[in-house]
Amino acid sequence: MISVDFVRTMARYNQWQNQSLYGAADTLAAEERLRDRGAFFSSIHGTLSHILWGDQQWMSRFAPTIVTKPPALVRESPGNYPDWADLKARRAAVDRTILDWADGMAPDWLDGDLLWYSGAMKADVAKPKWITVTHFFNHQTHHRGQVHAMLTAAGTKPDDTDLFMMA
Prior knowledge:
Blueprint: H1 4-26, H2 30-34, H3 44-62, H4 84-103, E1 113-118, E2 123-128, H5 129-153
Antiparallel strand pairs: 1-2
Helix pairs in contact: 1-4, 1-5, 3-4, 3-5
């Protein structure tokens, strides 16, 4: 089982790492961010858009009164935000929402099950909240690793990713 402190730490880590990746991506031309690099979501931009989609999807389940479900299906997520400035602004806003959600989390929120309809599974799902929150942060980390590799291959250098290095 994870703790509220873990959730708060990972929310800060999420924001820190997103600032690093978006800062590194900002040094590239739009064509480089959009170049198909053979990743699951094709490009740096597409993968960052997918991460945002996933965060919105999960946050709409965790905090439905403050986050609405994203507009598209997972397969469409790389193209949700074609404008770079818009993607960056939405990322920053969702990161703030994640931090606020984590900071306001009651100690017992992680107890019990989360209930939702999964479009991917085409079924109603009930899973322990602590597992879904762990998945939420794991999903971010997994795809940010892909973006980090693509940015490095493109010749830019994001910050270190080691959690213990976070201020």
